[in-house]
Amino acid sequence: MKRIIALPIAVVALVGLLQIAFGGPEPFSGKEMKQVAPAPAPECNWTGFYVGALAGYARGDMRWTDNPEVGETDGVELLVDRDQSGFLGGGELGFNYQWNRIVFGLEGTFVYSDLQQHSADHLFGGANVFDTRSNWQGSIGGRLGFAWNKFLFYAKGGGQFNDQSYSWRQGDPENELVNTFTANETRIGGFVGGGLEYMFNCHWSAKLEYSHAFLGTETVSGTRIDDQIPEPESYQVELNQDTVLFGINYKFWNF
Fold first, then answer.
1. Residues 6 or more apart in contact with residue 126 via CB below 8 angstroms
2. In angstroms, rounded to a whole number, what is the distance separating the alpha carbons of residues 185 and 159?
3. Measured between alpha carbons, how far is residue 164 from residues 27, 84, 131, 241 in Å?
4. pTM for this structure?
5. CA-CA distance, 20 to 90, in Å (whole number)?
6. Which residues pair with 139 in a beta bridge?
7. Exposure pattern of 110-121 as b/e (b: 16+ CB <10 Å)?
8. 80, 97, 141, 207: which could form a disulfide with 130 (CB 3.0–4.6 Å)?
9. What is the pLDDT of residue 200?
């Protein structure tokens, strides 16, 4: 009797084991398992504040003439006409706003410069040595650009500030003295230019830029020591400048 009862129990157990061993996947429940997609990469544009480093080369025409006194009718005498050139480097800070493909910007720069001019001529019977130097330069200007792919083509313009030093040493063959004139000024003028900037990613970009500064003709006043007697003196100096800059920028604040 016990064997009769145990037989169906063993058959049921065996069938269950076979279903577990050879059974297929669980029946479809009707619900799909969705894979979580990675977050899309942020879309980069030019909007935001940025800070950067600058380096480049500049060259400018400089004309130094006598400053005629009131009522003087003689022609203005040209003292020196030379180029002032050299390297410069510094930084910049700015803001861009992109609307569709149009980019509006405001930018300020400050660079230390090593633009110099040296000339030795012979005037008035003695040796004349002229030395000028641009100590630092700054600018504030607006930018208007067109964004295409990762490139930004832009024009810019605004105001430029040049700190200039002047020195004139004149030999006096009769008295065996050296008469000197020294002066310093910070000149303000306008500039126009343009450039190309490339965006590596949402933060880093590099640019190449050209500008021409119209610094004009100004009266430079300083101290002249003539026969060991100091007295005020002034001359007319005309200055223009062409600059090529390379820059690396980092955009630190997006909107």
1. 170, 171, 172, 173
2. 16
3. 87, 11, 11, 13
4. 0.76
5. 76
6. 109, 160
7. ebebebebebee
8. 80
9. 96
Give the residue ranges of DSSP H helices in the chain.
2-22
Q: Return the structure tokens found at 49.
A: 């504040």
Q: Torsion-angle region of residue 216: left (phi > 0), alpha (psi -120 to 50) or beta?
A: left
Which tens digits make up the pLDDT trace of 52-105? 999 999 999 988 888 766 555 566 788 888 899 999 999 999 999 999 999 999
Amino acid at 78: L
Provide the mean pLDDT of the chain: 83
CB 86 within 8 A of CB 131: no
- Helix and strand totals (H; E) in the chain: 1, 8
Query: Residues 186, 163: contact at Cβ < 8 Å?
Result: yes
Closest C-alpha among 58, 103, 35, 57 to residue 251: 103
Nearest by Cα to 128 from 175, 80, 84 = 80
With DSSP H G I counted as helix, E B as strand and the rest as coil, what are the percentages for the chain, rounded to 5?
A: 10, 70, 20
Give dist(CA 234, CA 249) in Å, integer. Answer: 42
User: β-strand 177-199 against 204-226: which pairing, if any?
Assistant: antiparallel
Residue 25, pLDDT above cutoff 90: no
> In this structure, what is the dihedral angle of CA atoms 69, 70, 74, 76, given to the nearest 10 degrees?
50
| Dihedral pair phi/psi, residue 194, rounded to 5° | -170, 170
Give me the residue label for tokens 């880093």.
Answer: 204
Q: Which long-range contacts (CB under 8 A, 24 or more apart) does 42-46 make?
A: 42/202, 44/150, 44/199, 44/201, 44/202, 45/98, 45/147, 46/96, 46/97, 46/98, 46/103, 46/105, 46/145, 46/147, 46/152, 46/199
Q: How far apart are CA 22 and CA 242, in angstroms?
A: 85
